[in-house]
Design a protein that fits this description.
7-stranded mixed β-sheet, 5-stranded mixed β-sheet, 9 helices, alpha/beta, 280 residues, globular
Amino acid sequence: MKKPPLRFKTIFISDVHLGTLNCKAKECLHFLKNTRCDRLVLNGDIIDGWQLGRGSKWGKMDTKFVRYVLKRVEKHQQEVIYLRGNHDDILSRFLPMEFSTVKIVEDYIHENPNGRYLVLHGDVFDTITKNFTFLAHLGDWGYKMLMSLNRWYNKYRSWRGKEYYSLSKAIKAKVKKAVSFISDFEEKLAKLAASRGCSGVICGHIHTPADKHFENLHYLNSGDWVESLSAIVEHQDGRFELVHFKDFVLEYPMKEEGTLAEAEEELESALSPKLFAEGF
């Protein structure tokens, strides 16, 4: 018997980077299919326009992800808030935008029983991203190369029977400047939230999931779906929780590819009405 999905008031995910080789769209989709919420917040860099602009390929799983979210909107009137990120910054030309139950905005205030939370992607305080576009793209290319190396390294580790190891996380943890940057980023966003009359902030951007407090300010980062595979969820009582996919999948295991259930899902997706043209 299939386990009923987990229900939350709000789910926050960011940095899925659809359209890139290292994106874990399948895992993120599995998480969404086994959860329900009143509001889904897609906090920036869901689609990676930078990599697609350089020739990265849009895959079948990327399309499945987008179709599933649109299916929730179409069939269940799912409220979706999409916030602009730096990798999908083309959206900034059209903001704010709204259709059906979907809103695409720069930032917004999330009302919680414990106070108001400023929700934004977080690149507002990334000087290189905002002011030195060439360097930002160069850094993104370097990150892509590192992730490619990481992928091959982990294939070797898997062959040796060892668990996944993130080279990027190891570098972030050991390089003093990287640790300093993350700390500075967190504190600046917390102060920005305070200046907007909020008691907390919810962001993404730096691919470092977190749930911490700075004096009276609550800092939450939903992480990413490239390495960390994490999300922030808000329970019905207003409590926030940082959820890691490695723990979630123990309760909701992924089906093997090619099963009858997967074939039925494909058929249902093919027969359902489309909100966008084929190949979106």
